[in-house]
Amino acid sequence: MPLFNATSFPFPLVIFDLDGTLVDSAPDIAQAVNRTLTDWNLRNFDLAQITLWIGEGSRVLITRAFQAAGSDADIDQVMPGFLKHYGDTALDGQAYPGVAETLQALHEGGIKLALCTNKPEQFVRPLLAARGLLKFFDDIVGGDTLPERKPSGVPLRYLADQFGLPVTRCLMVGDSESDLRAAQDATMSVVMVSYGYRKSLDLASAGAYAVIDDMPALLNLR
């Protein structure tokens, strides 16, 4: 772990994405998707395919899965079963290496931390608590907390307002195009991680403040 000097860190508030940034949750999400498909007597998909559908919220995810399986089922009828299955698997996601230590260093350095995810809010705090990460966060916005979610910049602007900070003094850390587009919409600086669920996103041309290969590298920002 690099030594962290809070006085030289350029942002007093860091807003993190969850899935694919802090936690590798694709396997448990895939399990919930396939259990739901099985309930409807539909084909299952492998982890790689389901991972490509992650990032824009659970409703978009399950809609894409059902469309790919050739079903025109009413998603309003599908969602309760999916959320039940997801509730059974949601605590299985594992934090990426160095995440807990990085959050602890930022927190102890006086940097405010928030979370902005498209995961339904009911699943967010239990997962963070299970991984020992909840104690580091000062505020949390889930995919159903506000009328708009990422890739809208509304949740990021909301969090900046909650801390009384202009967006220019806040940083978004994420892995996906939804994170990038939300930061761009909010005119907020963004750090992209090179792991996670970026799909076909070209990080080299993303215009990010930085691209990091592991979370501890965040502590080196200047």
From TrEMBL:
One of its GO terms (molecular function) is phosphoglycolate phosphatase activity. The active site is at D17 (nucleophile). Keywords: Carbohydrate metabolism, Hydrolase, Magnesium, Metal-binding. Its cofactor is Mg(2+). One of its GO terms (biological process) is DNA repair. Pathway: Organic acid metabolism; glycolate biosynthesis; glycolate from 2-phosphoglycolate: step 1/1. Gene3D superfamilies: HAD superfamily/HAD-like, Putative phosphatase, domain 2. It is an enzyme of class 3 (hydrolase). It comes from the Bacteria. It catalyses: 2-phosphoglycolate + H2O = glycolate + phosphate. GO terms for cellular component: cytosol. InterPro entries: HAD-like_hydrolase_sf, HAD-like_sf, HAD-SF_hydro_IA, HAD_2, HAD_sf, PGP-like_dom2, PGPase_prok. Its EC number is 3.1.3.18. Mg(2+) binds at D17, D19, D175. Pfam families: HAD_2. SUPFAM superfamilies: HAD-like (SSF56784). Specifically catalyzes the dephosphorylation of 2-phosphoglycolate. Is involved in the dissimilation of the intracellular 2-phosphoglycolate formed during the DNA repair of 3'-phosphoglycolate ends, a major class of DNA lesions induced by oxidative stress. Belongs to the HAD-like hydrolase superfamily. CbbY/CbbZ/Gph/YieH family. This is Phosphoglycolate phosphatase. It comes from Pseudoxanthomonas composti. The lineage of its organism: Bacteria, Pseudomonadati, Pseudomonadota, Gammaproteobacteria, Lysobacterales.
